[in-house]
């Protein structure tokens, strides 16, 4: 559709205005409907460069627009996607030991769990991390899948984690 | 080109093998040549969700492949892109005060500065952050540009920052 302000283009303002007038593209509206209907969002991905692959980051950038996921002074505990849970489930290239050295694993969770989900008011379950599946035995890989299957069965009984800095940076 | 292993597709292995046999697509080779020639990499972007916009994350994902930017046991201080400097220069939506509350600004720098640049052996200069340019006066915006112009003049005299966890999480 047309730009809200064609004099000075502002991506955030344009998506916000497009959301309000129902002018977002169809694929985004469909994704937002999925989010709206979901009680739990599970993000499954291979960790790329301490973060999500660009295509998943693009989903966050494009789908979680102002007006839909947060609003002026409606962020964090006041975010618009309350009463939803989220879970980051990912595989890594490096071993658990490597990510433990500097506390990297906790630090890299902060932007995703706190900066995105918590900002939108979504509660966060303990992340599910499979370390270096490509470097372990087939048996170990099967164990990883079994453990994930088991966890999924009782996921609804889990309590959200504390999303305060203390959890990440203690 | 053809896949190195068409039985079990592994994105990391495929890009690594493609790099070694000169089989990466032309746009990636051109970006790698720019990186190779550069003494200093400045990444300028608006902060989206505590991180780079997806398109810039995609640049990291696609350009910094194994064999080019790092290799087996050649990472961090042994990374392949040594003797280069980098600088993350970005604008934010929120005010400096908001990012200071939980130490967010330091925490979100970790994946980019440590997890990507330091991993590749690239040294990191102090980030350049313009807080909430859209919410300040035109005069203040001009001051921001002047300050950046001034900093660029003496950038070569700056010392890289300490990329240890202590710098981020003290």
From TrEMBL, chains A, B:
Co-factor(s): Zn(2+); FAD
Assigned GO CC terms: cytosol
Domain Flavodoxin-like fold positions: 17-152
Keyword field: Cytoplasm, FAD, Flavoprotein, Metal-binding, Oxidoreductase, Phosphoprotein, Zinc
Pfam families in the cross-refs: Flavodoxin_2
UniProt GO molecular function: dihydronicotinamide riboside quinone reductase activity; metal ion binding; NAD(P)H dehydrogenase (quinone) activity
Main localisation: cytoplasm
Subcellular location: Cytoplasm
Annotated catalysed reactions: 1-(beta-D-ribofuranosyl)-1,4-dihydronicotinamide + a quinone + H(+) = beta-nicotinamide D-riboside + a quinol
InterPro entries in UniProt: Flavodoxin_fold (IPR003680), Flavoprotein-like_sf (IPR029039), NAD(P)H_dehydrogenase_qn (IPR051545)
Superkingdom in the source lineage: Eukaryota
SUPFAM superfamilies in the cross-refs: Flavoproteins
Enzyme class at the top of the EC tree: oxidoreductase
Enzyme Commission code: 1.10.5.1
Family according to the record: Belongs to the NAD(P)H dehydrogenase (quinone) family.
Function field: The enzyme apparently serves as a quinone reductase in connection with conjugation reactions of hydroquinones involved in detoxification pathways as well as in biosynthetic processes such as the vitamin K-dependent gamma-carboxylation of glutamate residues in prothrombin synthesis.
PANTHER family, alphabetized: NAD P H OXIDOREDUCTASE-RELATED (PTHR10204), RIBOSYLDIHYDRONICOTINAMIDE DEHYDROGENASE [QUINONE] (PTHR10204:SF33)
Self-association state and partner proteins as the record states: Homodimer.
Name listed for the protein in its UniProt record: Ribosyldihydronicotinamide dehydrogenase [quinone]
Source species of the chain: Gymnorhina tibicen
């Amino acid at each position: 559709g047309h730009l809200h302000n064609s004099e000075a283009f502002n991506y955030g303002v344009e998506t916000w205005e497009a959301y309000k007038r129902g002018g977002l593209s169809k694929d985004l509206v469909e994704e937002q409907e999925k989010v709206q209907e979901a009680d739990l969002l599970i993000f499954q991905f291979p960790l790329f460069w301490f973060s999500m692959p660009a295509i998943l980051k693009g989903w966050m950038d494009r789908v979680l627009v102002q007006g839909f996921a947060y609003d002026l002074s409606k962020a964090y505990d006041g975010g618009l996607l309350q009463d939803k849970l989220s879970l980051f489930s990912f595989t890594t290239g490096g071993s658990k030991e490597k990510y433990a050295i500097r506390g990297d694993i906790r630090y890299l969770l902060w932007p995703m769990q706190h900066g995105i989900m918590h900002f939108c008011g979504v509660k966060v379950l303990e992340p599910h991390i499979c370390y270096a599946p490509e470097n372990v035995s087939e048996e170990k890989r099967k164990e990883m899948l079994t453990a994930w299957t088991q966890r999924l069965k009782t996921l609804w009984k889990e309590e959200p984690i504390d999303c305060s800095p203390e959890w990440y940076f203690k």
